[in-house]
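Chapter summary example.
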Amino acid sequence: MIEKMTRYSFIVYSGDREEFLNTIQEQGVIDIKRSEKAVDEKSVQMFQRIAAAREDMETIRKGVDAHLIALRTEEKALEDRLEQTIPWGNFEKDKIEALADHGINLHFYCVPAKSFKKEWPEEYPLEVVSDTGSHVYFVTAGECDIPAKEIPMPSANADELQVMLDAKRNEIDRYAASLEARKSELPRLEALVKDTISELNVYLAGVTGEDAAEGSICVFEGYAPEADKERLCAVFDGMDIYYEAHDATLEDNPPIKLRNSRFAGLFESITRMYGMPVYDEFDPTPLLAIFFLLFFAMCMGDAGYGILLVLIGWGISKGKLKIAMFEGLGPIIMVLGVATFVVGLVLGTFFGIDLYQATWVPDAMKSFMVRGKVAGYDAQMVMALGVGVLHICLAMIFKAVYAVRRNGFANSLSTCGWTLLIVGGVLVAAAALLKFIPSESIKWVVIAIGAISALGIFIFNKPGRNPLLNVGAGLWDTYQMATGLLGDVLSYIRLYALGLAGGLLGAAFNTLALMVRGDSPTWQWLPFVLVLLIGHTLNLLMSCLGAFVHPLRLNFVEFFKNSGYEGKGLRYNPLKK
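The structure predicted for these 577 residues follows.
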């Protein structure tokens, strides 16, 4: 949920500006209005200092930078040159040049072995230098009309290139060692970034404050959670300043601080990826947490991979695994792993093994697995579409509720009409399938829902407007809604497709490993295990990528579009030490 905020307005003597900002920073909960970009040369230098330190940190963590990449590119070029020069042997370039001074020019050729004619040595003044089996390398003395394409003479012989290559490799080793030695600088750089950001925030807050009364006083504006109001007012009462505290309103556009349960809080970073809600908007995090978790698990679709994710998340949380890009994400990886394990059991897949077909799996467990056909379609695909319909229906309910809250019921009849038609239609269809409604009553319920919805969609979609225009607007909305909803619902098939693909690929690696192992020879167990490890590692990585990207899309596109979520709020960023 979105925390209620209090708006503070401060009037401070200019001479007390620095002391005031230090006090604000010590409190650590007040988001002082300030610029988000450089405003003068000093702030530019601070931004540059932060960027440079972060770049150094990234270089040290990866153990590679632009210079090392350039060195390795040069190494590869030398390796290629050496490979091309070895067939020519260790020729002496100065003797070749001496021959040229006497009018004898050597010409170099390399042709495929099948193109080299046995009679050439008798017909032309040539000498074969080497025959690799695939190519023949030879030289000719003087001009001749041999039917082969001449190549440039190597600029150095094999020994010389080997010396150059060894020197380049030594240079790479020394530079890589220097990068490794710089890891001890990480704590200092991290502290530098943290301190500079703190200093920059205070500085930007100071220069953003408005001077008044010919510069003798300065006016500041800030926001803090309502829960801290009493404590902050006690602090401000003891300072030589004038301040006012009022409940923040939508017109103030206050920064947004989210307060969720420990579980939902794990997914606030995903909400921030899209954008924070505005002050009167709903916080999508709780629903996003549930559905992103479910979608991720369905895309992974393998209980065995769920166990691996739990172990990886635990290792990151306990510091056993050091992976920079996953730093601090151990708990959410563990939660995703648990969900993947549970959903994987429901789908009946464990490291690519079909649990439903396995004789060692109890029948009681198989009874919970989603298998078979529903109306002629695979049950897992129907489940994916059903989850999608539920997701979109919840989005439409949220849209209707917040439309009424913002604009009033009379100005939200079109939105409410569509919500009643779609959500009501889905509920009636579900009730009919489950026989909760007598069959003779279904017709009248459908007629009632359709009639009430039509009034909101076609007649009263904009009160006070010409009814014919309302009908035209309703028809256009109907076209957009029909085509859009169909595409949105079908998008959820990806949950079924990704889970199916991961399971089939895992099963393929299992089959390949069994083929490698054969019947029983002991030595074949090693390649069997290697195929399993490499295959399932690749499948896990690819599945994780798809299971992250596609649930994001379903939430950011299908859900947010149908819920009317904008995500244009300002993120709460208090001044603090």
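To summarize the output: The CA atoms of residues 513 and 531 lie 5 Å apart.
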